[in-house]
Design a protein that fits this description.
223 residues; alpha/beta; six-stranded mixed sheet; five-stranded mixed sheet; 3 helices; 19% helix; globular; Metallophosphoesterase; Calcineurin-like_PHP; Metallo-depent_PP-like; UPF0046_metallophosphoest
């Protein structure tokens, strides 16, 4: 069982203070996008816990960066990593951290020319890659995905009708294929109104804006 602090979209001012230590018992921090990178670094440093994130539509474009033995490059040229120091970018990846297997898919539906925005077709292609990666991992060790971490929600599952906040249809298919215990997303601001958890099959879909603490069982065996 892993305890995680999940954050997204809205900075919680109290977490800049000593009140952050009320979360000292968490095993992992996950971020679902659209938070200042220095805020994420602060949480990881203060709690001394690993951080896994996916970028949101208001974050920098982090595509094209590679890390080999601690050296960051882009197009073969050494560069400074612009993302949060020490964090794991799970976008379009499947990662194992703190006993959990996490599949990630950042970004929102395309509504202007900003970064980390995708058409439904583009995101569906990215989702298929994540599905293949998860399948290869499952064949290797029999473990399924525990958490699907996204910025946007699935279509008609906690999204909004306006164009920038419409969810992705392809995420429904990805949930169906991966069958994670939890899907955690951001992007949809509560604006003072509670956002109830939802379900897609056996997957619990949770809007984590601005923060949630969850206990999640890891190491699901699918053999």
């Amino acid at each position: 069982m892993a305890r995680i602090l999940a954050v997204a979209d809205e900075v919680v001012e109290q977490l800049w203070t000593d009140r952050v230590f009320q979360y000292a018992d968490v095993d992992l921090i996950v971020a679902a996008g659209d938070l200042p990178f220095d805020y994420l670094e602060h949480l990881a440093d203060a709690l001394d816990k690993p951080l896994v994130f996916v970028p949101g539509n208001h974050d920098l474009d982090l595509s094209g960066y590679s890390n080999v033995r601690g050296l960051w490059t882009k197009a073969g040229v050494p560069v400074r990593w612009p993302g949060p120091a020490g964090a794991v970018n799970a976008d379009e990846r499947v990662v194992d951290v703190a006993g959990l297997r996490i599949a990630g898919l950042g970004g929102s539906i395309r509504y202007n020319k900003g970064p980390n925005q995708w058409t439904e077709r583009q995101q569906a292609r990215r989702a298929r890659r994540v599905s293949r990666l998860a399948g290869w991992r499952r064949l290797r060790d029999g473990r399924g995905v525990d958490v699907l971490l996204t910025h946007s929600p699935p279509l008609d599952c906690g999204d909004e009708p306006d164009a920038p906040h419409r969810g992705f249809e392809c995420l429904r298919g990805l949930v169906s294929r991966l069958q994670p215990s939890f899907m955690l997303h951001g992007h949809i601001h509560p604006h003072g109104h509670p956002r109830p958890d939802r379900a897609l099959g056996t997957t619990r879909v949770i809007n984590v804006v601005p923060q949630k603490v969850l206990d999640i069982s890891g190491g699901r065996d699918e053999t």
